[in-house]
């Protein structure tokens, strides 16, 4: 592995958006990738589900490079609004970032992932991340000429998911910070 690959791997991180600065980065990234590049209306990209979702921001060092949101349903986590800035759209970066979010889902007790994909990106989700196309679940979005595919996949269960048996203080902690010491102790 080259030195630059090692440095890039060590500088990539995923952060659960818990501050106004994180949400600013989510907004900027979605605006670049969806509104500017794909001409998708902002009213679709920024909707009422943003208030009920978990948002991730991906950073290379301190630079925001990608984002996604996850909504939680009975038995599955739905990935939405996944985007990466153009110069960071390579398989290594995308796979590493998405895998970090899989760990988060598993910690919450979810082992099934669902997402929708435009046809040109379906192979990324299937080959790189192991999801499968759900037959008969295609839908047309944004006036697309080709249908978006609904994809699903299983992720490994976490050995210690957050559950009713978790210590009470764990259940009080900020999303994704379940193992960090309490700030108020």
TrEMBL record:
In which domain of life is the source organism classified? Bacteria
N-acetyltransferase domain ranges (all copies):
13-154
Identify this protein by name. Answer: N-acetyltransferase domain-containing protein
PROSITE patterns associated with the record:
GNAT
């Amino acid at each position: 592995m080259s030195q630059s690959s090692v440095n890039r791997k060590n500088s990539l991180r995923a952060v659960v958006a818990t501050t106004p600065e994180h949400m600013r980065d989510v907004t900027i990234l979605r605006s670049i990738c969806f509104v500017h590049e794909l001409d998708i209306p902002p009213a679709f990209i920024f909707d009422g589900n943003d208030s009920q979702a978990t948002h991730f921001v991906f950073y290379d060092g301190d630079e925001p490079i990608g984002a996604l949101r996850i909504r939680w349903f009975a038995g599955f986590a739905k990935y939405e609004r996944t985007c990466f800035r153009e110069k960071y759209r390579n398989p290594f970066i995308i796979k590493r970032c998405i895998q970090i979010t899989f760990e988060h889902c598993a910690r919450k007790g979810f082992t099934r992932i669902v997402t929708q994909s435009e046809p040109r990106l379906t192979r990324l989700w299937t080959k790189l991340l192991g999801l499968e196309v759900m037959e008969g679940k295609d839908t047309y979005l944004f006036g697309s000429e080709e249908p978006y595919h609904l994809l699903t996949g299983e992720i490994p269960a976490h050995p210690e998911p957050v559950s009713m048996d978790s210590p009470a203080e764990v259940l009080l902690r900020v999303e994704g910070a379940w193992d960090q010491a309490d700030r108020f102790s």
